[in-house]
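Question thread 4412

I'm putting together a teaching handout and wanted feedback from people who do this every day. The idea is simple: show students a protein as raw sequence, then show them the structure tokens that encode its fold, then repeat with a second protein so they can compare. Below is the first pair exactly as I plan to print it.
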Amino acid sequence: MKPLAKGLLVGALQLFLVLSLSAKLMYERKTRPRGWARCQVYDPEFPIRGRYLAEQLVTPAQGFTYTEASRPNISAWYLNRQWAYWVVRNGQLTAESRGSGSGAWIHLQKEKDGTLSAMTEEQVLIFIPDTAKIPNPKPGEETWVEVTIPEKGPPRPIQIALKANGLLTPLHLN
């Protein structure tokens, strides 16, 4: 086989792999549940891979028991590390203690009103263009991300939005 033919064969194989992965992700986006989750954004740039937003999702938690720290100087962070399953309820991503399908390690947090929320241990990454201007949330605004829930693995981000006065406004970072 000539070098040109080998090169074309390798190129065709790589193109097939990329297109098949793209088709799989597009299919999941159309058929799998999707919902919104509040997130904490940090570390907006990693020079090796380009620019991205790294988020930890914060969702309502159902069916969990929160464990208080035994002493005031001890953090309850690791006491409340639990496995959660993802479900979408009323368009919002929710962590549940029982279920099947996609799940992740979460840390339970007790909110000011006494409700429990779950913060993901693993980051969700949204890659953005180098020229994108990322607005900082103003007081009273929250950053939210829409995600697809695959059969296995972490939630996959679709878009990011700011929420103010109960209204989600998607950001166009192109």
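The second pair follows. I'd like the answer to focus on this one:
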Amino acid sequence: MKTRIASLAVVILFSAAISAQAATTVTVKGVHLCCGQCLKAVGKAVGAVEGVGVSCNKKARTVTIVAENDTAAQKALDALAKAGFHGTTGNKKLAIKDDSKAGKEKVSRIVVSGAHNCCGACSKAIKTLVSKVSGVDGVGVKPRAKSFAVEGNFVPADVIKALNGAGFHATVKK
């Protein structure tokens, strides 16, 4: 009986070791993480994905995802983007996808939605960086707003590129 239990324990430990080796780790760099609420939002969004663990480094602006496999890792990246966060993985296979619907033709106005915007610091960062986009005359962002208008004579893809570069994931409302 003891031999059987010992054998079972070895099998369980061996299986756990194989599972640990098969885990997928993805570090997302350049994520906007200005405050505790940003960190909580990342934890809530990514933590809701089955088979995934997440940790954040506010100072380094990184989110590290450890998943049981590539499929779970991609679901976690999708959840991170849905929560309004963006960054780069350095991995062509596992990455945050461009779902912005941002055109490359100049427009006078768009409504941007989905960017994480939990506080005044998020809002200020969004306004500052979008205001620097060529042709943008106004950015109507307020703290905690789910969407905001951008006005001027600009290319929507340039606005999204600026947001993504600062760690915000967003889409253009049609």
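Top answer:
Good format. For the second protein you could add a caption like this: Residues 2-20 have pLDDT under 50 and may be disordered. Residues 130 and 159 are 6 Å apart (CA to CA).
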